[in-house]
Design brief:
The complex is a heterodimer. In chain A, about 75% of the residues lie in helices and about 0% in strands. Chain A is mainly α. Chain A folds into two domains: about 1-365 and about 380-405, no CATH class; about 410-510, Oxygen-evolving enhancer protein 3 (PsbQ), four-helix up-down bundle (Four Helix Bundle (Hemerythrin (Met), subunit A), Up-down Bundle), CATH 1.20.120.290. Chain B is mostly helical. Chain B folds into two domains: about 5-30; about 50-160. In chain B, helix 4 packs antiparallel against helix 5. Chain B starts with a helix and ends with a helix. Classes of the chains: A mainly alpha, B mainly alpha. At the A-B interface, helix 9, helix 12, helix 21 and helix 22 of A face helix 1, helix 2, helix 3, helix 5 and helix 6 of B.
């Protein structure tokens, strides 16, 4: 029982930490929609009720850096703005699948044509689902509620800031928590490592299995793209990879329940059933044709270990290990956004507690007196649509700019990898298995960062460099397996091989 | 507030999701434990040559008199020949050979591997593959590159 409970706590904490940055972005976008863009502006942004609504929802979804949890508060605002159900769900599905960072990462890791097909596949799904939904359930939008305009100046900033806090302390957060609970439930159902052989190339049930698992799973866009690239590199089932992308990244328990509450059980089940059929049809369609040439299919993968319980049956010291695993998942940007989320949540909660009538917001949005307006004299009054556009475009550009911070210059990466390599070899020599388990994925991550950083800085890797990276990654993986099996002679052999491959990789890192 | 039928439906949906996942992935946790003994053979096929030196030697042998050769774990000579050519770039990158040599070997690999693959798909024989223009020269050049590298390594070891 300890294993089930602690395993679920570990997975839920990891998911929560990973989701923090994109949840905060989701609250921010929802607040911009509500207080800056307004109901009518939001409706126009998504193409009104014209034929443009679906492609526009797809495009906006591709650009905004949110995940399947962060998208929920945005969906709430879209619904209140009178946008059609098909468009809302199209956006809800696409926004978490891709964003500028993940597409960039994906382009350097997998076959660009495959990524293009995956993008087009998602567009097809979104369009089909949107058209089917609006066809069967016409006029399924609410009349946009009337919102008072927000005066310009400091009060507009204040109203938007308060709206972010209100978003944090709203029903959307309950749906987010339900989605996180789904992650815990999944880890309780799946024993450790049980999915290692569930996405093999020759397993015709692989996409179906993935459909079952990924609905409850929570995958960030970045993790999804890394996992999909890894599936391509290891020759796993491409159909399963596509299913993982759409259902794992796009759907979760919270989103499904939101659809139920806002539409109906019947509509939700019909939508999800239709989605499953379309996704599986495309998955089985692309499984063969997109399989990468020249790749030896691996007989197992560790890509999905994170969806399962982290502890093997009979493990001891589970509570201490759980705390260690959660601490290892901490990344500075996630901690920072987690703290921001907590502050927003607290202020939102405080406001709800002290101001049930909503007078704080009322005061902020009350039109200023004529004398106050005159006193602003030479201030330039920016219309709300300008601020909204700058805000949303800023998010997109910030995510692109963030790439350059995340993927550091090659010299820095080289330095980091050298230091990590020393730690890794020392851990292997000292038989410190936990430390080895920590350093290997870190080195793999840096090797991927090297690829992306070179691409970002306009110096894509040559075939020779690519092959050196491939050899290094493959040796790291073999060392990982030797460590898993506690085969000391093999550990020593692969440690030497990793060192050799790393020396060769460093020679070409420039 | 969820009404009773809603709760029932919620449970049904969850059960359906679980049923799909449990029935399809053959959840046998003991299987995972039994199969956990990873070895190199799980990652590389039986005819994986390990080094560029072994690959070059085997390619030369396959290009010559195959009467004395044994096939590796039932892999046909044609299949092995194509795979060896395909793996050459990776094996070269896993050696101390320089980029210039790599580029030449990579060029041969990208030229011949897809060609032989399609020939094999159309029922082509080993003889037909060996008769392709330039292959003989490529194998000899590879031999020379590998030979020079062996001598270089031997000289380093002798110092």
């Amino acid at each position: 029982m300890d294993i089930l409970i602690w395993g679920a706590i570990v997975r839920m904490s990891q998911a929560m930490l990973a989701a923090c940055p994109t949840i905060v972005v989701g609250w921010l976008v929802a607040a911009v929609f509500e207080r800056i863009l307004g109901r009518n502006g939001t409706l126009q942004l998504f193409g009104g009720h014209t034929w443009r609504q679906l492609p526009q929802a797809w495009l906006l979804g591709m650009l905004l850096p949110v995940c399947s949890l962060g998208v929920i508060p945005i969906l709430v605002q879209m619904r209140k703005s009178g946008i059609a159900g098909g468009t809302i769900l199209a956006f809800g599905l696409t926004a978490p699948l891709f964003n500028p960072i993940s597409v960039l990462y994906g382009l350097t890791l997998s076959d660009p044509f495959a990524l293009f097909v995956f993008c087009m596949g998602s567009l097809t799904i979104v369009t089909v689902m949107g058209v089917v939904w609006d066809w069967f359930f016409p006029g399924n939008w609410l009349e946009p509620e009337e919102l008072p305009g927000v005066p310009y100046g400091v009060r507009r900033i204040g109203a938007a800031a308060l709206a972010v806090c209100q978003q944090a302390f709203s029903h959307s957060t309950l749906y987010i928590l339900l989605a996180i609970a789904g992650v815990g439930l999944l880890s309780a159902i799946l024993p450790a490592g049980v999915l290692q052989r569930s996405a093999n190339k020759n397993d015709s049930l692989a996409p179906l299995t993935m459909a079952g698992v990924s609905t409850l799973a929570y995958v960030t866009p970045m993790v999804a793209i890394v996992q999909i690239a890894s599936m391509f590199q290891h020759g796993n089932s491409i159909g399963a990879a596509f299913t993982l992308l759409v259902l794992g990244t796009g759907v979760n328990l919270g989103l499904l329940y939101w659809i139920v509450r806002n539409y109906s059980w019947f509509k939700a089940v019909a939508w999800f059933g239709c989605l499953l059929v379309v996704v599986l049809a495309i998955s089985y369609g692309v499984d063969g044709p997109l399989f990468p040439k020249g790749v030896e299919p691996a007989d197992h993968t560790h890509a999905f270990d994170n969806y399962c319980n982290p502890f093997q049956a009979g493990s001891t010291g589970v509570p201490a290990d759980s705390i260690r695993l959660i601490r290892e998942a901490w990344k500075p940007e996630e901690i920072l956004s987690g703290l921001i989320a907590l502050v927003l949540l607290s202020i939102g909660g405080l406001q709800w507690w002290l101001d049930r009538e909503g007078s704080w917001m009322e005061r902020l949005i009350r039109p200023p007196l004529p004398t106050q307006r005159q006193s602003r004299g030479r201030d330039i009054v920016l219309p709300n649509w300008v601020i909204a556009t700058v805000g949303l475009a800023g998010l997109v550009f910030a995510s692109i700019g963030g790439c350059f911070l995340y993927y550091q210059p090659i010299a820095e990466i080289r330095k980091e990898m050298t230091a990590n390599h020393a730690e890794l070899t020392s851990a292997c020599a000292g038989r410190e298995w936990d430390a080895v388990d920590f350093w290997i994925p870190l080195q793999e991550d840096w090797a991927h960062k090297y690829t992306v950083s070179s691409y970002l800085r306009g110096k894509p890797l040559s075939r020779f460099q690519q092959m050196r990276v491939k050899v290094f990654l493959s040796k790291l993986e073999l060392l990982e397996h030797a460590v898993e099996d506690r085969e000391l002679a093999e550990v020593d052999m692969w440690k030497r091989q990793v060192s050799l491959a790393f020396t060769r990789l460093k020679e070409v890192m420039q | 507030m969820i009404h009773v039928p809603d709760r029932l439906l919620l449970i049904l949906v969850l059960l359906a999701v679980m049923a799909v996942s449990t029935s399809c992935n053959r959840m046998d946790s003991t299987k995972g434990a039994e199969d956990s003994a990873h070895s190199e053979h799980e990652h590389f096929p039986a005819h994986w040559p390990v080094t560029i030196f072994a690959a070059s030697e085997r390619l030369t042998a396959l290009g010559g008199d195959r009467g004395q050769l044994d096939s590796k774990e039932g892999v046909s000579f044609e299949r092995e020949f194509i795979d060896l050519i395909r793996w050459l770039p990776e094996l070269t990158a896993d050696s101390d050979l320089k980029e210039l040599d790599f580029n030449r070997i990579d060029l041969w690999s990208s030229k011949y591997a897809p060609l032989f693959e399609s020939m094999l798909g159309e029922g082509g024989t080993m003889e037909a593959m060996l008769a392709v223009d330039g292959l003989d020269l490529a194998i000899k050049e590879l031999q020379k590159i590998v030979q020079a590298e062996s001598e270089r390594l031997a000289a380093i070891q002798g110092q």
